[in-house]
Amino acid sequence: MRILFVCLGNICRSPSAEAVMRHRVEASGLAGEIEVDSAGTAGWHTGKAADARAIAAAAARGVDVTSIARQVRPEDFAEFDLVVAMDAANHADLEGLPGADPARLRMMREFAGEAGLDVPDPYYGGDEGFDEVLDILERSCDGLIAEIRSGTIKATAG
Length: 158
Ligand code: 4NP
What we know:
Distance between the termini: 10 Å
Strand content: 5-15%
Bound molecules: 4-nitrophenyl phosphate
Largest sheet: 4 strands, parallel
Structural class: alpha/beta
Number of helices: 5
């Protein structure tokens, strides 16, 4: 099972989602079964480490944010079983990508039972926004792992 988390810049929300998910996957003994990655719909920050505020907020919870930013690619929909958008704008942008597969596209907060809500963009706000994002990502990742365990999400990528 391969999961790609997607936000706008790939320096705040989706690298944090990738890191929180990897941490929880490892704690759940699923490390051999679930691979995670992240990307941005925009390419502005390609090649850069995550925002220092995102790295610090996650580190305070024992989570390492290590990803290097990249932009989404049309082939991501073939290579990942699940493409998880952080907000409605990311979802719309992903739907418009050549090769988009609506069956593999979801919104992050659906997994927390919070369908219709965005993971708010913390980039232009204060440090507390990064903690709020982590709270949302933690409960979303727990829901996502529960869905994978229960078999409602299945690996279909080649
Ligand atoms: P992210 O946050 O989508 O969570 O990585 C942002 C990062 C950078 C910008 C916007 C949002 N930006 O405008 O550069």
